Amino acid sequence: MKAAAFVLSAIFVAGAAAPARAQFGGALGKIKKGADTAASAKKQYDDWNVTDAEERQLGEQVSTKLRLRFGVTQDPSLTKYVTLVGTVVAQGSSRPGLDWRFIVLDTDGVNAYAAPGGFIHITRGLLGLMKNEAELAGVLGHEITHVTKKHTVEAIKRGKEIDMGANAAGKGGMTKDMIAKLADKSFQKLFDGAYSRADESEADAIGIQIASKAGYAANGLATALQKVADRNANQSEPNGFFVSHPVIKDRIAAINKEIGADKLAGKALVAARYKQDVTFDAKPLSEIPTVDAGASGLASGEKKKTDARDDSKKKGGTTESGGKQQASAQQTASAGARGGVPDRDAKGGSNPAPVLVKLTPAEITAFKKDIV
């Protein structure tokens, strides 16, 4: 009996141990599968390279969407001034050879947007809020850094869009349709101010370095941020440029610390020239008209006759009258109108045509001489 009991006991123990080993082995298998998936995702992230040409195409389409949404201030003199400041700052960046374009958006909202490939947009409202060239240089330096560090491209790579982009790249490069889809994603990220805290901090730190390198007061970005913070003091949610007051407060402190640590020596404010070229002030938040829910979001403010989403389903993802880019601008702008946040959802002008500016080396050299 004892021998039989021992055999039965051994059989029971062995039987009990088998499921345990199976469960343990299954868990290990899941862990290994997860590790393999993570490794594959990392390799996909590392291997996906957006070429300069693709980055430029992406930026051109994002810029088009911004111009359709807000319109462009048709003032060659003002555009040339902003382009001169931006060009001087960009020359000290890590990508001075880019075909930089500086665009003044025709809206009273206080905002700025950097599209991939060298397209920098600043609103008429933000120009009116700032009061000297050092502040403009600091803001443009920040936006230029978003481009040089490819923050929008990296954000796409970190998101689910990497599956589309990497698969397309693996087939010999991204198609026009793929770039258009990524441009939609990029536009929405910019419109919603979706840069990470790390990206914003990096853009602050490098932006003030290249502005100071050009001779501008290194605290220009900080004083511009303080103006935005004062403007948003009574706002209960993020409102346009550089989001909410507590975050701005921390960033100003970090900028001032960076100025001391790097011994940034730029001192020029160039307030007189700024006042001469920027002859208007920003409107108070209470006076900024916004895009109403259901509006088309086009620069003209025209009400859309049908819901863009329903229309896109009927006509293969676009509207027949406006084309793909216009339909996309309608959809994203209408979505942006959800909360009526003044600076983000401000109405824009009616003309999206870019104002083209050509600078000569002599003009740039003469402009630099007055940064004192």
Question: What does the model show?
Answer:
There is one protein chain. The chain is mainly alpha-helical. The protein has helices at residues 2-47, 52-70, 76-90, 124-129, 133-148, 151-158, 161-170, 176-191, 197-213, 220-231, 245-262, 271-277, 308-314, 323-336, 361-369; strands at residues 101-105, 112-115, 119-123. Strands 1-3-2 form a 3-stranded mixed beta sheet, with helices on both faces. The radius of gyration is 26 Å and the shape is globular.
Count the helices. How many? 15
Task: Count the E strands.
Answer: 3
Low-pLDDT residue intervals, each spanning 5 or more residues: 1-17, 293-339
Main sheet record: 3 strands, mixed
Brief digest:
The chain has 372 residues and is mainly alpha-helical. The protein is 59% helix and 4% strand. Helix 3 crosses helix 5 (133-148), helix 5 (133-148) crosses helix 9 and helix 10 (220-231) runs antiparallel to helix 11.
